[in-house]
């Protein structure tokens, strides 16, 4: 069947489902199994939703899954209701990001009520990603990553919690909330430095924390660097630590060329990502003499 045929059939199913729901409310529903009618309507809405999906009518699919979710709730099937809300959210994601968030939030309410915090955390991440990419509201994305990290921590899923926290730290630093970023990078660095599998990443977190310190205050960055080397001796031999020392020296001497040179050399071996480039440029700005045009890093 072609997509317009699927869509026609879906529309008929929706109308049929609505009739069942209405008749389940009738005076005689107690005598003639009102619940059975609601169950049938539920099934019809779900079938209609899947047909709309095949026809790529995402809004209609989202709406049909939503109707099914509400009926599942009426039938006291919390789990099925939450699943339908998630299906609705995934359909709406392709057409109406805000509506997708509303459906996912409805699912999260049910899951947290049932004590299913790990799955609630997962859906908070999906919402955060919609805020990141579709709605570009970074403050709201941060809030959902934080909520997700909280739930993961409560369930002892520390590596999942750390992933969310690192997202929060990266955004916080971009928004110039350096103190918040520093706390997270130091916390995650400290948590990972004793783990043989994750030890390698700890140097990145201490490096990022030091850069955030550096933007705020050079002396703080020096003190932080000493602290990190003491806590995590492997940091001293890392290229990141050596770069920081060169940058601090160049900053002290107000030597813009030496700063750029050190960054170039580091970049030739480990490519700098967008975040690091942004932070290093913010530090470089504070070196530049009055009226000097801002040079690039590379």
TrEMBL record:
Main location: membrane
Protein topology in the membrane: Peripheral membrane protein
Cross-referenced SUPFAM superfamilies: TPR-like
A Pfam family recorded for this sequence: SNAP
Keywords: Coiled coil, ER-Golgi transport, Membrane, Protein transport, Transport
Keyword DNA-binding part of the UniProt annotation: no
GO molecular function terms listed in the Swiss-Prot or TrEMBL record: soluble NSF attachment protein activity; syntaxin binding
Record-linked Gene3D superfamilies: Tetratricopeptide repeat domain
Location(s) in or outside the cell: Membrane
Superkingdom classification of source: Eukaryota
InterPro entries hit by this protein: NSF_attach, TPR-like_helical_dom_sf
UniProt record similarity statement: Belongs to the SNAP family.
Function: Required for vesicular transport between the endoplasmic reticulum and the Golgi apparatus.
The protein's name in its UniProt record: NSF attachment protein beta
